[in-house]
Request: fold
Amino acid sequence: GAVVSQHPSRVICKSGTSVKIECRSLDFQATTMFWYRQFPKQSLMLMATSNEGSKATYEQGVEKDKFLINHASLTLSTLTVTSAHPEDSSFYICSARAPGSKETQYFGPGTRLLVL
Amino acid sequence: SQQGEEDPQALSIQEGENATMNCSYKTSINNLQWYRQNSGRGLVHLILIRSNEREKHSGRLRVTLDTSKKSSSLLITASRAADTASYFCATVYGGATNKLIFGTGTLLAVQP
Reply:
């Protein structure tokens, strides 16, 4: 099946710094990617929908200036957590819509962010 | 919040037993999907059932959907230790983006 990768898998940073997370579709083109956030032992919460060549669509309550999303190519979307704080520590997961399907998504392995 | 709820939150069974997880959602849907997540990993798509379907099978998985009650169940038969994971239902709403809205999840532990 289609593969979605994320990099890095883990990152530890100091408070106030910015962190960039990459999401790549390895063997297919993805015009739409999604970014989720998951707190320990909780469900995934959709943060934003990333559309290639256009601005991302953010869910209610998600600060677009805090979580910058860029989808510059058909295989890469990036999420930048700007001026990170300890409360931004979380598991961030991206997904890409499966080729030829509006309904199924392929998920990346996730990125664990710890802000000290 | 449109997020659905799942029960039980946690389920512990012995290998060989069947595991049943339930999911309830709030609004009309196009389809409902079940995903599996191993600890600290990404999600794997298991099965999709459309709003006009009532039951679907895939290997040891059986999914039912009752749109009148806005609920779905996932049955894993003859469970194995490797089935230990979190299981999430996700509903797809209409619109251009067809976003997935995840339920709260069930943590399944299968004891060998």
User: Anything to note?
Assistant: Residues 37 and 92 of chain A are 5 Å apart (CA to CA). Chain A has a mean pLDDT of 92.
